[in-house]
Amino acid sequence: MKLSTSLIAVKKINSPVDRSTFSEKDLNSAAASILKAEGLINPLVVKRLSLDAYEVVNGHLEYYAAVRAREIDPRKGETIGAFIIDSDNEAALIEQVEILRNNAHTQLIISPPPETIKVPTDSSQVTPEKKLDDLTTKVEQLGQASDRMELTTKNKLDNLTTKVEQLGQASDRMELTTKNKLDNLTTKVEQLGQASRMEVTTENKLDNLTTKVEQLFQAIDRIESVLSQPAKPKATSTTQPKRSYNKQPKLQLQEELDRRKIKVTPKGKKVTNADMIAALEADDEAKKTSS
Fold first, then answer.
1. Distance between CA atoms of 41 and 263, rounded to whole angstroms?
2. Residue 198 dihedral angles phi and psi, to the nearest 5°
């Protein structure tokens, strides 16, 4: 069977070597490189434990770097390349691992019998306390990732809710503005109608006033016509009574002057009632004298 790598979901792989064995700085650098290259240059060697479970045989640093890459970007770091040890290639792969990929810090050669598993004998040997600390760290990281995901989702939902509210408010303002404009237009039309009615009323009043003035002029003409007739001399006296102009309005005085064709020379800048009365009385005296 030709040897080839397979893409395996990182979450389906585990390592018997504790994560704390490696520097977080190194893991972060390696994770960034994996994400940038979108793959692993040195594939893992894993052993199939079940249909959906694998254990790292070689490449523990690479595995934890892949785990860190998945923590940073779950989409890009979802899978990792690996050689899978099966029954038909187990001997050849283990031989290559022993010869070509020997690493004193991370190597863990797993042969078919479980009792032959080699475990680290140096100071990096895994203890239950370290496993518990590593498990606690992973749980905390998982919780933090969940919190960030919930926070991001909540922020997106809040932003969407805010935008929907803003859209509703903008719609309300637009409707309110349109309603206000319509109300203002209606008010102006009503005011225009009222103004039109006012103009009609004013025109009627002016017509009525003009009619009354004309009637007044006609009455004045009749009175003047009566007054202009020669008075019959009384048996007891030949003196005609003096006509009074003091109570007559300026308009009537002017009409009388125009009728008699008398031109008034004002004493000041304007012709006053006194000037008109004096001219009329002088004309009366002249007529008396001539008679």
1. 126
2. -65, -40
With beta carbons less than 8 A apart as the criterion, state whether 65 and 106 touch.
no
Q: Both tokens of residue 46?
A: 């894993």
* pLDDT of amino acid 137: 83
Amino acid at site 257: L
Same domain, yes or no, for 223 and 247?
A: no
pLDDT tens track for 32-64: 999 999 888 889 999 999 988 999 999 999 999
Residue 246 lies in a domain: yes
190 in a structural domain: yes
Contact between 218 and 255 under an 8 Å Cβ cutoff? The reply is: no
What is the rounded average pLDDT of the residues 269-279? 86
Q: Is 248 helix (H, G, I), strand (E, B) or coil?
A: coil
Q: How many domains does the chain have?
A: 3
User: Which range marks the domain in which residue 224 is found?
Assistant: 127-230
Distance CA 255, CA 265 (A): 16
What residue type is assigned to position 282 of the chain?
A: A
Look up residue 6 and give its DSSP letter: E
Calculate what percentage of the chain has a pLDDT beyond 90: 23
Q: How far apart, in whole angstroms, are the C-alpha atoms of residue 130 and residue 19?
A: 9
Beta bridge pairs of residue 6: 82
pLDDT one-digit tens code per residue, 146-167: 677 676 667 777 877 788 688 7
Q: 128-228 vs 250-260: helix axis angle to the nearest 10?
A: 40
Angle 250-260/273-290 helices, nearest 10 degrees? 40
Which residues, at least 6 apart from 2, have a Cβ–Cβ distance to it below 8 Å?
A: none
Containing H/E element for 44?
A: strand 44-50
Q: What pTM was estimated for this model as a whole? A: 0.36
Give yes or no for a contact between 78 and 70, defined as CB atoms under 8 angstroms apart: yes
